[in-house]
Write a structure and sequence with these properties.
about 50% helix
Amino acid sequence: MNIRVVIVDDQPLVRAGFRMVLGSQPDIEVVGEAGDGAEALRLLARTPADVVVMDIRMPVLDGVEATRRLCATGPDAPKVLVLTTFDTDADAFAALQAGASGFLLKNVPPEELLSAIKVVAAGESVVAPRITRRLLDRFADQLVPPTGTVDDQGLAALTEREREVLLLVGQGLSNAEIGQRLFVAETTVKTHVGRILTKLDLRDRVQIVVLAYERGLIRPAPSP
């Protein structure tokens, strides 16, 4: 099946460039585009999509708030891949906490953009967990505890091993590194991560890291 993509950017030339790149792929279909976050939400309410390529700084409604509202619609919401010209930790942090599954700069090579869209569509993230943790260490005091997304009962549903894996994911370890730490196969770790995502109704590994901070399971690294 084709990956259905919606492009959201306030610059028509940028949207045209993305459409040209994505349209060259036989397994990607651009099903719509919008010039701001509000227009994007209206479009997505009537247009099924798998991935939204979202700019951050736009008029009317910015990409961070649009991402937050879109992800709040439920587990079937499209995955959001944020692209921006602003290489700042604050932008990345805001986008990830809003629910984005990836964060890239607009000047990435076309092949990297295409790969990121496919990775995000498959339910993975394109932000390294260590980068996520660096951002959370820096902005932990700005975290807003979730309201009912994952309660203590949800965490209690995890097995002891799943809780171990959650904490290690929260520390930024890859599946291979977690496997080495716990003396289990990498495929076993992947299975545990999948079960954690299902039990806690999370979208990807990035959300596991954010959750670990929000619930106080991981403490920010001390400032140097």
